[in-house]
Amino acid sequence: MTNSGKLIRRKAPLIVFEGADGSGKTTQSELLNQYFSKNKIPFSYISFPRYEDSIWAQMVKRYLMGEFGGVDEVDSYFGSMLYAGDRLSARDEIRGWLAEGKIVIANRYTPSNMAHMGAKLKSQSEKSKYIKWLEELEYGENKIPREDLVLFLHVPVEVSKKLMGGRSVDIHEKNIRYLEKVVVQYVRLAKERENWETIECIRDGKIIEESEIGEMVLEVLRKRKII
């Protein structure tokens, strides 16, 4: 429902890029933006967290900078509320784009929390309970659009760390052990969920060229009959 109470009808898919930090999500999102623009395919793009547009995202930044404690000190449910608030504040805009028939490309979305916050939990039963709660919160209570396709860019942590280079790191990026757990969680989710596709970005121990990964993304979209 919109603020006016009118039902918005979904007409186009929501595509989400996911992967560990430094896996190339922003690069591949931009390449897909360029492809859609060149081929005159109606689309809109959004990237989370929206630090410049959302008070919730400003709190996310404080979390990532360690103001509320280290990775293992901040509760998964608490941390997720900050990210969920950011997505909720963008809900009506995203739903409007979809209703207009625009494909929406999102750089990170709810699956980011499934992987990152889920990785903090020890047992699989705890992880499953958390994900069930998160989906009820975001898709049920907050009524954000559910993603139609998740493109998981699979890059080992040791490679993604090199790709990040000397950029400033947050409490997630500086914790290698935690990032390894995040990748494991992503891999598990990708195997369990039909709307996920894994893009293997490594060949013979080296990162594949950006343009070739981009072609792999397009091939998935063709297979899924999105383009």
3D architecture notes:
- It is a single chain.
- With 227 residues, the chain is an alpha/beta fold.
- The protein has a single domain (14-223), classed as 3-Layer(aba) Sandwich (Rossmann fold).
- It has helices spanning 25-38, 55-64, 76-89, 91-99, 110-116, 124-141, 157-164, 176-192, 210-223, and strands at 14-18, 43-47, 103-107, 149-154, 196-200, 202-203, 206-207.
- It has a five-stranded parallel sheet with strand order 2-3-1-4-5, sandwiched between helices.
- Strand 6 (202-203) and strand 7 form a beta hairpin.
- The radius of gyration is 17 Å and the shape is globular.
- The two termini are 28 Å apart.
- The model is unreliable at 1-10 (pLDDT under 50).
At a glance:
With 227 residues, this protein is of the alpha/beta class.
